[in-house]
Amino acid sequence: MHVILDDTLDRWIRETVPGGDLTCRTLGLDQQPGVATFTAREETVLCGSEEVARVFEKCGAKARIHLTSGQLAQPEDILVTAEGPVGALHIAWKVSINILEYGSGIATRTRRLIATAHRGSARVRIAATCKTVPGTRELSAKAVWSSGGMLHRLGLSETILVFDHHTAFFPSFEDLLLRVPDWKSRACERKFIVEAASLDQAEALAAAGVDGIQFDKLSADELARNVQRLRVLRPGILLIAAGGVTEHNAAELAATGVDVLATSAVYFGKPADISASILPLQP
What we know:
With about 280 residues, the protein is of the alpha/beta class. It has helices spanning about 5-15, 20-25, 50-60, 85-115, 135-145, 165, 175-185, 200-210, 220-235, 250-255; strands spanning about 35-40, 45, 60-65, 70-75, 80-85, 125-130, 150, 160, 190-195, 210-215, 240, 260-265, 275-280.
C-alpha cells in the first residue's frame, strides 16, 4: 500500500499546530496520559490509517492500526487507536480526522462508482482525473488506488493527452495528422492520446496511429456509435469517455464498450462520517 511521505505529513501537522496546542497548554493537560479512538459511523472504504498512525508517532504517541486503507469498515468498527500524552493526542487527532474523513470519502465514492460502472461492463476501468483541490493530490490519489480505481493522470509530466488547446496552434488538422509518427517517436515509451471533437476526427486520428482517443461529454448513444466504428477500424485502440461521468450514468457509458471512464466526480461529495474520542488512559 502506498504511504504518503513524511514531508507532506509534516506540512499537514504544521498547518494545524504552528505553535503548540494553546488549549491543552492552558488547561495543564499536555502530559496527562490518554487514548484516542477513531470509529466508523457508516459503511466506509477506509483510506489514510497508515498516515494517521504516522502522524500520532510524529506527535509523540503510539498508534495501532485496526483496519488498513482499502478495507471496508462497518458502523462501530474501530479504525485506529493511539496512546500518549494528551497534548500529543490533541494535535494528532485534528490532523488525523481530516485525513480519514476526506480520504475515506473519496475512496468510498470511487468504490461505489466502480460497482455502478461494472453493471454496464465488467472490464471498464474507472480513472480519476487530476482535478483535485490544490495541495491534496497525494491523499486523493491514495484514496482512488485504495478503492480499486486508477489515475487518469497525476499531472502533466507522465502522460501525453492532446486537447484542442494544443491543436489550435497547428495550421490545420491535416498538418497535425502528418506529425503523429514523429511525436510518437519522441515519446516512444508513452501512449499518445488525443481528445477528438467528432467521429470524423477520431477515425482520422486512429488511422494516423494514435494509441488512444478520448471523447468528452458525449451521450451514451453517440459514444456507442463512435466506439462501434472505431473498433472496426482499430480493434485494439484505447477509448476513453470523459466529462460528466457520475454514478448516474456510469453503467450506461460503460456499456458502450469504452475501455476507461475518466472522472473527477469521486473528489466531490461529503466526507466519510468517522467519530474520534480522546479519553483518560485507564490504569
